[in-house]
Design a protein that fits this description.
The complex is a heterodimer. The model of chain A has no long low-confidence stretch (mean pLDDT 95). By secondary structure, chain A is an all-alpha fold. In chain A, 42% of the residues are buried. Chain A is globular, with a radius of gyration of 17 Å. Helix content of chain B is 64%, strand content 7%. In chain B, strands 1-2 form a two-stranded antiparallel ribbon. In chain B, a hairpin with a 5-residue loop joins strand 1 and strand 2. The radius of gyration of chain B is 22 Å and the shape is elongated. Classes of the chains: A mainly alpha, B mainly alpha. Chains A and B meet through helix 1 and helix 2 of A and helix 4 and helix 5 of B.
Chain lengths: 169, 201
Amino acid sequence: MITNHQYTQMAIEALSDKLNDSIPEIRAKAAESLGKMGDSVPISALINRLLVEQNQQVQLNLIETLGEIGNDAAIPDLVNYLNVEDSLIRIATAKALGKIGSEKAISYLVNALTDSDASVRAVAAQALGQIGSEEAIPNLIRIFSDPDKTVRLQVADAIGKIGQRYAVA
Amino acid sequence: MQLEKLVNVTLWLKMALSKKYLEMAISACVKKLADSDPQIRAEMAKTLGELGSEEAIPFLCQSLENEEIKDVIFAIMNAFTVIHNSGSNQPMSENPKYNFPNAQNVQIVEQTDGGDVIAHNYASPQNLAEAATEIQNLLDQLAETKPLTSQVIQQEIQQNSDFKTRLKKSISAGSIETLKVIFAPLGIPIEMLKAWLEIES
C-alpha cells in the first residue's frame, strides 16, 4: 500500500500540472478530476490557479474541488469569491464552504445571507446548516422573513439541522 | 489428457491467473497508448482505468505529458479517477482499516461489541498468488513425467520428501481456499491432501 500512495501522488501531480494548460477545457477537466482523487490532494496548485483563472467554468470546477477536498486551509482564499460579481461563482463558493464544514467560514456565510441574489442566500443558509454551529442561529432567524420562499425553506432546514446536532450531543 | 488437467488447474488458479492476465492486459494496453490513432489511445486509457490497477498510472502520466488531443487527455484524466476509486484489483482506500505494508501473513484479532474475540488469519494477496504459482509449478514438473492423477500425486508425496516439503510450505503460505480450487479439479478433496501431507485438520 506504500506503492499505492506513490502512484496516487503521481496521478495527482500529473493532473495538477494540467491546471495550467493553455486550453480552458483541459484545465476544467483537470480541476474536476482532482476533486475525485481523495482528500490528500494538495490545495496549493488549485488555489494558485484559482487566483489567476479568468474562465468561469474552470473557476467553478476549482471551487467545487476545493469543497470536495475539504481542507479548511482553502477558506481564506475561497471567501473572496463570495464577493465577486458572478453569482454562479458566489453560489459555488458558499456550497464549497458548507462542504468544508469549518466554523472559520461562519462569519463570511452570515454576510452572504444578505446577498442580492436569492440563490446565494439559500445556499449560504444551507451551508450554515451543514457547518452546524449554533452561533449561526440568530442570523438565520433574521432572514426568516426573506422575500424568497426557497431561502425561507433553507433557513428552516438549516436551523433544524443545527438543532438536531445539538440534540444528539 | 495431462494437458487438459493442467489447463483445468490453471483455470482454477484464480489468484495467480488474475495477476498474470492483469499484467498481460496492462502491458498490451500500455503499448497501444502510443498508437497513432487517437481513438485507440483514448480507448486504451479507458480500459486501463477499468482494469483498476495502479501499475498503469506511470504510463498514463507519461502519455498525458505528450498527448495533444483533447478527448485522449480527458480519457487519461478519467482513468486516474476511475483507478483511484476502484478497489477491485488493488485496494486503494485512503484510510484502510488495516494497513500492513509488505506483510507476509497477518493475524487480526477483533473484539466485537458483545465481547467475542474474532481472529482472522490472512495471507497477503501477493503471498497467495506466489503460493498458488509455486504449487502450480510443482504440479507442472510432475506432469512432465506422469499423468496427473490423484494416485500419482499421493505417490509423489510419499516418495519425494522434497516435493512434500515444498508443497507443505506453499500451503502454509497460502490458504485452504486456494488449495481447494487447485486440487478439487484433480479429484483430490482437501481432507485427503491434508492427510497425505500429515497436516492435522
